[in-house]
């Protein structure tokens, strides 16, 4: 494999061949740490980005040296660090390309090529390194000029084990809990009991029993606590809210841009402004606009032209549990209509039309079904409760090409729907007014 036979020389050769406008073929040396903004001139790199690139180049250099010495311990440590870093990132900088990604590719491509399927995607495999190697050699983001016969053959469908994606919120809660437990343990060590620490009480050779004063105080506290519990009547449980499609967080979304998913032919990856507050869960800051956005993967490639996904408004479901789709975390779902099919038929055959919110509705504005706006959307739908699966069958389009909710398609709320709305059909409307529509599909299902 030409690109990996000698990492340093092959990296320079690859850079010269791929970026002749930025890297002179006559140059005998190249300062890799300064090469990124020259190669990827249309991106903006901060001082923090530059420091990160420099750090990763140093790490990759250490990995190269470790392979030369066959130092398995260092190799394993660096591979684990790199794999964990790439779990939640497309590139080493997150989303922006850098020369560090290409340097890593030059070192790791021949290694990955020799790995077994278990080493690549087994339970203890380096899934995200494999995905990164495939992305760098094939992704348009890098546009490397590598002949097909020199690329590492990677079967993206041959996955032996699906690792559980790290939930940043759960990880934060876990660390918070560990910190609290550590503080509690430290406090217990210094708590004074009868003029001595608990440690001293337990270690005192003259007695193994707590003093009478301590025992009496503990007993009195326990009795007071029990009496307090007896006096306080149990508050009646609040009445359960009637089931409603308004539990689903539907909003106007503005697609800033959409691209083909680097690892899946059927998916688009869209950057969507959903009106979230800065710092909200499952959001990031779009560098080009400074807006708070969500990354959304949609199985619309081949069904909706990519040009129709650019700079337009859509309706998005914002409180489904985020899922990682071929290495990219998707934090919402774009609503689209398609013809209803009989059981057993292909429900993704098309045609497909995106749901259009009212033209004047701003990004982030709530969208709801008339007569079903009494309940506030849940922060995140619990997959076990199957709220989306319960109400989605009622999402439909009318003969007037309006999107609505037909309660007759949801047996558990048929009567409630009729009583609440006076009709079995409630139109999908924006809070500021106006009905959501589709282009031409009548009597279609919406999901």
TrEMBL record:
Composition bias type Pro residues, residue spans:
235-245
Q: Does the keyword RNA-binding apply?
A: yes
Comp. bias intervals (Polar residues): 205-214
Q: Enumerate the UniProt keywords alphabetically.
A: RNA-binding, tRNA-binding
- GO biological process terms on file: formation of translation preinitiation complex; tRNA aminoacylation for protein translation
By its UniProt entry, which PROSITE patterns does this protein fall under? TRBD (PS50886)
Which residue windows does the record flag with biased composition (Basic and acidic residues)? Answer: 168-181
Q: Where is this region: Disordered?
A: 168-247
The cross-references to Gene3D superfamilies, in alphabetical order and at most eight, read: 1.20.1050.10, Nucleic acid-binding proteins
One GO molecular-function entry: enzyme activator activity
Q: Matching SUPFAM superfamilies, A to Z?
A: GST C-terminal domain-like, Nucleic acid-binding proteins
Where is the TRNA-binding domain positioned along the sequence?
244-368
Spell out the GO cellular component terms annotated for this protein, sorted alphabetically and separated by semicolons.
cytoplasmic stress granule; eukaryotic 43S preinitiation complex; methionyl glutamyl tRNA synthetase complex
Q: What is this protein called?
A: tRNA-binding domain-containing protein
């Amino acid at each position: 494999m030409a690109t990996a036979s000698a990492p340093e020389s092959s990296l320079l050769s690859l850079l010269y061949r791929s970026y002749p406008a930025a890297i002179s073929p006559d140059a005998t040396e190249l300062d890799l740490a300064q090469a990124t903004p020259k190669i990827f001139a249309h991106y903006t790199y901060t001082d923090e980005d530059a420091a990160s690139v420099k750090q990763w180049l140093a790490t990759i250099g250490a990995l190269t040296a470790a392979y030369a010495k066959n130092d398995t311990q260092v190799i394993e440590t660096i591979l684990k660090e790199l794999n964990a870093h790439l779990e939640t990132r497309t590139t080493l900088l997150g989303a922006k390309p850098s020369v560090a990604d290409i340097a890593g590719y030059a070192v790791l491509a021949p290694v990955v090529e020799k790995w077994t399927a278990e080493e690549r995607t087994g339970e203890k495999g380096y899934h995200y390194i494999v995905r990164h190697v495939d992305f760098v050699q094939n992704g348009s983001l890098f546009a490397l000029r590598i002949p097909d016969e020199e690329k590492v053959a990677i079967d993206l469908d041959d996955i032996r084990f699906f690792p559980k994606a790290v939930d940043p919120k759960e990880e934060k809660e876990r660390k918070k809990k560990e910190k609290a437990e550590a503080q509690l343990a430290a406090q217990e060590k210094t708590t004074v009991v009868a003029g001595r620490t608990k440690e001293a009480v337990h270690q005192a050779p003259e007695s193994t029993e707590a003093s009478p004063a301590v025992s009496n105080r503990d007993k009195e506290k326990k009795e007071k606590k029990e009496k307090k519990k007896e006096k306080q009547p149990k508050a009646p449980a609040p009445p359960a809210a009637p089931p409603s499609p308004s539990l689903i967080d539907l909003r106007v979304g503005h697609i800033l841009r959409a691209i083909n998913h680097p690892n899946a032919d059927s998916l688009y990856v869209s950057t969507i402004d959903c009106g979230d507050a800065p710092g909200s869960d499952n959001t990031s800051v779009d560098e080009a606009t400074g807006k708070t956005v969500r990354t959304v993967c949609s199985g619309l490639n081949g069904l909706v032209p990519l040009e129709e996904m650019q700079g337009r408004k859509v309706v998005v479901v914002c409180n489904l549990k985020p899922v990682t789709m071929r290495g990219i975390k998707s934090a919402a779902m774009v609503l689209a209509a398609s013809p209803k099919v009989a059981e057993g038929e292909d429900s993704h055959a098309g045609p497909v039309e995106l749901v259009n919110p009212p033209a004047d509705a701003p990004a982030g504005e709530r969208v709801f079904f008339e007569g079903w706006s009494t309940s506030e959307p849940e922060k995140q739908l619990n997959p076990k409760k199957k709220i989306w699966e319960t109400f989605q069958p009622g999402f439909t389009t009318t003969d007037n090409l309006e999107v609505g909710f037909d309660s007759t398609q949801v047996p558990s709320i048929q009567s409630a729907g009729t009583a609440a709305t006076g009709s079995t059909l409630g139109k999908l409307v924006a809070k500021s007014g106006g009905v959501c529509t589709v282009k031409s599909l009548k009597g279609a299902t919406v999901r």
